[in-house]
Design goal:
signal; four-stranded antiparallel sheet; alpha+beta; membrane; transmembrane beta strand; disordered N terminus; single chain; cell outer membrane; Outer membrane efflux proteins (OEP)
């Protein structure tokens, strides 16, 4: 008996220490967790950098609309042995004859018409930037969903840990009561042993739940991109949005679901690619101009030096007349790519609406189950209180008390799990609708 009292005192002491340290821990809300993840998440940073690349690429210059200006320098020197026989029969020979030429200046080359390919390319660069924005939104949605799912899983486990701790306290009280009754001869040794076995069983369940709780905390810290050993607490309730409406979700999904938007943008990119391919049927017209200075010196010949400077200008035009029917093939391929893009959009829309319908049915069922399990928990708690009062005065057997105790803990666990499942359904629906907010 002394050992039992010392053991209980130690457990209470440890419980107070843990409770005190828990009060000192940071209370992390779902909003704060999402904010930390959005700031630290590596995938979001990578996709954001890729979007910055796409934004930088949107320029008339990269599309080919602007002229290209080059500074040019050409310097040639030679030293040769030369023998010349002129038309009048005169022969001239010179060893180590030097020839030097130097030209330098600025040249401009500007494609002024290419079948409107440059304009299609510029619009395509804009669409690629829009594609990057949609991909960033998708990365953010996935991260927020992952954070919220893990966060509320932790809330559920914290609730279950509290419930198991409560039932463990009840089991310890039962052991003390059975021990006292045994010592005064009002209970058998079997009743005491059964109480101790049940206490150990509850202790095992508590330790397993505590292990799962700590591992989930580590997982959440990993998602948040911070020290995995960071200590914190989460809120103790799960609030579920019970006002989601399927037609409104379907409307939002078709307007802003990132995966669907990606396919719509890909179709526009395919259409612009077709315009660029078709532009090859038209001539390419370019204008050239420049200002060149040129000096040359020759040791032998009619002209020993020559100096030139001034503008030059002109234009060029090329038109593909025959290329082995490749133009027709390229246009046919581009048209098929557009057709495939349309089919992918239809497929994605159908899949999205199917996922929404299924998820909404699960959501509706989970709301009903959450309400049912909350009521069941209240009933189980009332039943346990009555049973415990009767057990203390010895009017009911041990097995009936244990049944009421197990009924209560199971009701608490089911209620906690039902709330978590309802929250998961809410998160899934909002993610599919592209409208995942806290």
């Amino acid at each position: 008996m002394k050992f039992s009292k010392a053991y209980n005192f130690l457990l209470v002491f440890l419980f107070l220490i843990v409770s005190h340290s828990g009060l000192a821990q940071e209370l992390l809300t779902a909003e704060e967790a999402v904010a930390i993840a959005l700031e630290n998440n590596f995938q979001i940073k990578i996709v954001a950098n890729e979007l910055e690349i796409d934004e930088t690429a949107v320029s008339p210059g990269l599309a080919g609309m602007l002229p290209q200006v080059n500074a040019v320098v050409d310097n040639n020197r030679s030293q040769q042995d030369i023998t010349q026989v002129r038309s009048d029969g005169t022969e001239i020979s010179r060893n180590n004859a030097k020839n030097n030429s130097l030209s330098y200046g600025v040249e401009l080359d500007w494609t002024i018409f290419d079948g409107l390919r440059m304009f299609a390319r510029y619009d395509q660069l804009k669409e690629i930037k829009n594609l990057g924005e949609a991909e960033l939104k998708q990365a953010i949605l996935v991260t927020v969903s992952d954070v919220m799912t893990t966060y509320y899983d932790l809330v559920q486990q914290q609730q279950q840990l509290t419930a198991l701790d409560s039932t463990l306290v009840i089991s310890r009280q039962r052991v003390d009561l059975a021990n006292n009754r045994f010592e005064i001869g009002k209970a058998s040794k079997l009743e005491l042993l059964n109480a101790q076995v049940d206490e150990n069983t509850d202790q095992t369940l508590y330790l397993r739940q505590q292990e799962l709780y700590e591992n989930t905390k580590t997982r959440l810290n990993e998602i948040l991109g911070r020290d995995v050993k960071e200590e914190f607490k989460v809120v103790d309730i799960v609030v579920v949005d019970a006002d989601l409406f399927l037609p409104k979700l379907e409307e939002l999904a078709q307007e802003q679901n990132p995966q669907l938007q990606v396919q719509i943008i890909n179709k526009r990119i395919a259409e612009l690619q077709f315009k660029q391919v078709r532009a090859a049927r038209f001539p390419i017209i370019s204008a050239q101009t420049g200002y060149i200075l040129s000096d040359s010196e020759n040791s032998l010949g009619f002209t020993t030096s020559n100096n030139v400077q001034g503008f030059n200008y002109g234009f060029s035009a090329t038109l593909n007349i025959f290329d082995g029917f490749n133009q027709n093939r390229n246009e046919k391929i581009a048209r098929i790519q557009i057709e495939n893009s349309e089919l992918v959009i239809e497929q994605q829309t159908q899949t999205l609406l199917s996922q929404l319908s299924t998820a909404y049915q699960t959501y509706s069922t989970n709301l009903l189950l959450m309400d049912l399990e909350e009521k069941n928990e209240d009933i189980a708690k009332e039943n346990l209180d009555i049973t415990m009062a009767k057990y203390k005065i010895g009017t009911i057997p041990t097995i009936e008390f244990r049944t009421a105790q197990l009924n209560y803990i199971n009701a608490v666990l089911r209620s906690s799990n039902a709330a978590y499942e309802a929250k998961l359904s809410e998160i899934t629906l909002k993610e599919l609708a592209g409208n995942l907010t806290l």
